[in-house]
Design brief:
heterotrimer, A alpha/beta, B alpha/beta, C mainly alpha, A: alpha/beta, Rossmann fold, 6-stranded mixed β-sheet, 4-stranded antiparallel β-sheet, 11 helices, B: Elongation Factor Tu (Ef-tu), domain 3, 8-stranded mixed β-sheet, 2 helices, 27% helix, 28% strand
């Protein structure tokens, strides 16, 4: 079964080559539907943004893409391979082709920066120590933190931790990098660094990047194409210019950061006048 | 990745300490053979009742432990308990006609064998049997004895007259042994 | 009626949890051999759970022994059997107090450390990050910690027992002037290898139970600050209760 899956030819694509595809995925947690008929294509070699209001399930989508959870129906394909049907071993083999950057870095707290970046190398390869050292230092250099190799995660600022996490995600040279809210909670300078790194990594190394975020401003500079997810489906997709002029109300509210619209300002409540009078 | 030298050292220390404690417990706390320097000779004694004597109980003379009870078994031919003891070799001057009795140490203490020396010029050797024994003190027997003694006495006095309520009731005391 | 429904829900919840723990146990056991292939990880964990608990174990062992000496002497003295202090003290420590108190202390010190450490890794996505890097956290994080715990507990138990008996001796012989020779000889004649084996076996069983609970609670903690705190509390409580229940069962079996 497993050899079948890995040697099967990728499905025929549209004009651009999609490395990750989400086809008509339905997923619910405890009866509450998160996705009802989600369709996405992530183009190879490009930076794709995935945005949406809070709670639309962006992180859930990432979990579906990386095989951590299975859709109720529909398919998630990575390079033509159905992620949800893999055995643990094949799934792990597939995950080595992806790198993921978590919201808070998720560095191992009891190891120093060097060991953190070396971690995937030590676990998956038999490379000699000298070679590991070179790779680690190179990755750290590319994120500008080679001098911080011996610091502990607790001594790093948020931005630095995220850069180390990026170096770690890059350690095994994955084909796809997934960023989960990489800009959240950073000061403008650190944010600028991350933006630059995301772009550099993508184009210099020829990889694909998926950025999940709701930082409209940053993404407008960064992303080649974007998806806005709302109401369990794709509400809009395309380049930023297209999105800015989209007719959908929710897209309009999201892109322009409007306080009220399809996502209401007021939480559902009884009539104001009556409420005041009752007390 | 590798634990530091200190970590490894203290872990090693910990493990060694654990084994040292185990070693201490096993050797110092349990009834491993004889306490002193190994060499001993075996004698046997037959009892009608050994009470709660257990293997490993002490064999003492004048209150000093000179040996241990090794095994206890039952002889179906003679209907007696067979107690094998090992006496420390340094105590080789125990007369052949000595007395082996089963005693109790304190109220809660276990039972042990006390050897009272006789006057024989010949001494116990490996394989000898101690002829003179005194069984364990069994409370029920004593009470029976006492009861039958008083019964006889009552009957005697009832025959010779009408003494009525003049019955000596000796309080049932356990003799301190 | 409502009460019955709640009761049924609680029972069902309890049974589910037991099943979940059992399955988790199976997964940990499956990863255990591979964990031992990385001895450096296991050694580190034996250090964390065992060596670092030494001070508290030895201190408490000494005081438990000393209290036992005091109480035991007072009790036995009323029957004129003070020399039985060695026996009484040793048997109490070896068979009951040693394993049980060590287990409770272990749960409090090492168990909470394990639970909170793993819980924190869960809360900061470290475990998920590992899974994403195709490293099985069971093999890399959980199994070594569990192995460390089950190695450390019997050792700690034995150390506690030894020091406890020393404590009894300290009070009985040095303080109350019980005859040293009879103290030790009575002990020797009453305590057998099988008693010590009992104590060690209990130590091993409690070690498995407490280590399992600790890593389970940590692994399944809600990934928030309160979640980790709750997991730590539950570890101690459940470990204590389970230890005492197992103690009864084991004592009944081995008697």
């Amino acid at each position: 079964m497993s050899s079948n899956a890995t040697s099967r030819k990728p499905e025929p694509q549209t004009a651009q080559d999609s490395i990750v595809e989400v086809r008509d995925v339905h997923y619910s947690i405890g009866g509450r539907p998160i996705f009802s008929g989600l369709n996405l294509q992530i183009q190879r070699g490009r930076i794709t943004a995935i945005m949406g209001p809070s709670g639309t399930g962006k992180t859930t989508l990432l979990r579906l893409m990386t095989g951590q959870i299975r859709p109720d129906s529909g398919q998630v394909l990575f390079d033509g391979i159905d992620v949800s049907n893999l055995s643990t071993r094949d799934l792990y083999a597939l995950r080595r082709r992806m790198g993921m950057l978590f919201q808070n870095g998720a560095l191992l707290t009891d190891e120093d920066v060097f060991e953190n970046v070396a971690f995937p190398l030590r676990e998956h390869t038999d490379l000699p120590e000298a070679l590991i050292r070179n790779i680690v230092l190179t990755k750290l250099q590319s994120v500008g933190l080679r001098g911080a190799a011996r610091l502990m995660p607790a001594e790093l600022s948020g931005g630095m931790a995220r850069r180390v996490a990026l170096a770690r995600a890059m350690a095994t040279d994955p084909e796809v990098l997934i960023y989960d809210e990489p800009f959240t909670g950073l000061d403008p300078i650190s944010m600028g660094m991350i933006v630059r790194l995301v772009r550099q990594m993508n184009y210099a190394l020829g990889i694909t990047s998926i950025v999940v975020s709701h930082d409209v401003e940053e993404l407008s500079i960064l992303a080649d194409s974007s998806y806005i997810i709302a109401g369990g489906k794709v509400a809009a997709s395309g380049s930023f210019v297209e999105l800015k002029d989209h007719d959908s109300e929710i897209v309009h509210q999201f892109i322009n950061g409007l306080a009220d619209g399809p996502v209401a300002f007021h939480y559902p409540a009884p009539d104001y006048y009556e409420d005041l009078l009752a007390g | 990745m590798r634990p530091t030298r200190t970590v490894e050292f203290s872990t090693g220390l910990f493990v060694l300490l654990g084994f040292a404690a185990l070693f201490f417990l096993v050797t110092q706390i349990t009834n491993r053979e004889l306490a002193t320097n190994g060499k001993s000779y075996g004698v046997v004694a037959l009892f009608e009742n050994i009470g709660s004597l257990k293997p490993g109980a002490a064999v003492s003379m004048a209150g000093v432990t000179v040996g241990r009870v090794e095994t206890i078994s039952y002889d179906q031919q003679q209907y007696k308990a067979v107690v094998h003891m090992r006496i420390n070799s340094q105590f080789d001057k125990i007369p052949k006609d000595s007395d082996a009795s089963i005693m109790t140490s304190g109220l809660l203490g276990g039972q042990y064998i006390g050897i009272t020396p006789g006057g024989d010029e010949q001494y116990l050797k490996q394989g000898d049997r101690i002829e003179f024994v005194q069984d364990a003190f069994v409370l029920e027997n004593l009470i029976n004895q006492l009861a039958s003694t008083f019964l006889r006495r009552d009957q005697g006095s009832a025959d010779s007259g009408n003494q009525g309520g003049n019955q000596e009731k000796a309080p049932a005391q356990e003799p301190k042994k | 009626m409502h009460f019955l429904r709640e009761l049924w829900d609680n029972v069902r919840e309890f049974v589910t949890t037991v099943g979940s723990v059992a399955l988790f146990f199976g997964r940990v056991l499956a990863q255990l051999p591979r964990a031992f292939l990385r001895p450096s990880l296991v050694v580190e964990q034996v250090h964390n759970t065992g060596a670092l608990s030494l001070v508290i174990i030895m201190t408490c062992g000494l005081f438990v022994g000393m209290v036992l000496g005091l109480t035991g002497y007072d009790l036995l003295q009323r029957f004129g059997s003070e020399e039985a202090l060695g026996t009484a003290g040793a048997l109490a420590v070896v068979k009951e107090l040693g394993p049980v108190v060590t287990a409770l202390l272990f749960a409090g010190r090492a168990g909470t450390a394990l639970a909170s450490e793993i819980g924190l890794m869960r809360a900061t996505d470290q475990l998920t990050a590992m899974e994403m890097m195709a490293v099985d956290p069971m093999r890399r994080v959980i199994a070594p910690r569990f192995a460390g715990g089950i190695i450390a507990m019997p050792l700690l138990t034995v150390i506690f027992i030894a020091i406890g008996i020393f404590g009894v001796q300290l009070v009985g012989v040095q303080q109350f002037k019980v005859d040293a020779a009879s103290f030790w000889s009575q002990m020797r004649s009453s305590v057998g290898l099988d008693d010590i084996m009992e104590g060690v076996i209990k130590g091993c069983v409690f070690g498995v139970a407490c280590s399992l609970i600790a890593v389970y609670e940590g692994y399944n903690a809600t990934p928030t600050a309160e979640g980790v705190g709750r997991a730590t509390t539950r570890t101690v409580v459940i470990s204590a209760v389970l230890t005492l229940i197992l103690d009864y069962i084991l004592t009944a079996i081995m008697l």
